[in-house]
Amino acid sequence: MTAATHAPAAVEVPRHHAFGRFCRAYAKRPAGLAGLGLLVAFGVLALASPLFIGDDQLNVIKVDGPQLSPPVDGYPLGTDQAGRSVLLLVIWGARESLSIGIIATALTVVLGSAVGLLAGHYQGRVGQGLMHVTDWFIALPSLPLAISLSAVLGQGAASITIAIAVTSWTATARLVRAQTLAVEARPFIERARALGAGNTQIMIRHVLPNVMPLILVSSTLTVASAILSEATLTFLGLGDPTSVTWGSMLQAAFAGGAVTAGAWWYLIPPGIAILIVVLGFTLVGRAVEHVLNPRMVGR
C-alpha cells in the first residue's frame, strides 16, 4: 500500500502581518523615525493652523503689529513689512506648500508609473515610442520648462502643481520600466500567460504589486523635490499672490527689502522650514528603501 505524498499548500501571508513586519523593521531605523517625527509635527501644525490662526492675523489690512520688527515678546520670529507674525506665516504657509508638494507627487507617480508599466510590458513600438517621449522630456531643462508651463497656465497653485508633475515624471517612468522588465522575466509571468491571462491582468495583478515598493520609495523622495520646485516657482513670482507659502514668503522678503534692511528673521524661518521638511521626506524615503530593498539590509 502506497501513500501519496502531498506538497504543502502555499499559505498567503495576510497583508496586516506584512505591514506589521514593515513597521517593526522601520522602527529599527532611527533616522527614519526622526524624519517621520518631523513630518508629523509639520503635518499636525498645518492641519491645526485654522484653529489658532485667524484672518485678522494674516490680512495686511487688519494686522496692527510693528512693521519688520525683530523677535520680541508676542512675535517670537519677528514680523514682516506689513506687521504680520513670521511664525504664524510659516505655520500657515505649510498648508499650501505641503499640499502642492503632495498633490504634484501623486500626479507625478501616477503618470510616471503608467508610462513605465506600459513601456516595460509592451516592448515593441508602443514601448519604444513611450521611451522616446520620456527621453525627450529628460533632454529638456526642467526648470525653464516648468517656468514656461506656469506662465502659460497662469499664476496659481494649480498651474504650479501641473508644471511640477509634467517636468518630474520621467525618473519614475524609467525606474518602473526597469523593474517591470525584471518582473516580467520571472517564471510566474510565463505561467500566467500560459493560463490565459491577458495583458491588463498581468500588468495589474502580477506586475504592479511587485513594482509598488519601488513606487513607494520613489514617491517619498519625489515629495522633497516637489516642495523645492514649488518654492522655486513661487519665489519667481509664478504662484498665487494672495496665498501664503514658504516660497511666497521668500519672494515677499526679497521684494520688500528685507535683505537690505538686515531683516534676517524674515528670510531664515521659511528657508529652515523648507530644509526641515525636505530633510524629513528624504530620511523617510531612505528608511523605506532600506526596509523594502533586501540588498540594503545591514547597510
Describe this protein's structure:
This protein is mainly α and 299 residues long. The chain has one domain: MetI-like (MetI-like fold, Orthogonal Bundle), CATH 1.10.3720. It is built from 10 helices and no strands. α4 packs across α6 (157-184). The protein is elongated, with a radius of gyration of 24 Å. It starts with 14 loop residues before the first helix and ends in a 7-residue tail after the last helix. The relative contact order is 0.14. Mean pLDDT is 86; it is low at 1-13. Residues 94-285 form the ABC transmembrane type-1 domain. Its main location: membrane. It is found in: Cell membrane; Membrane. It comes from Streptosporangium canum.
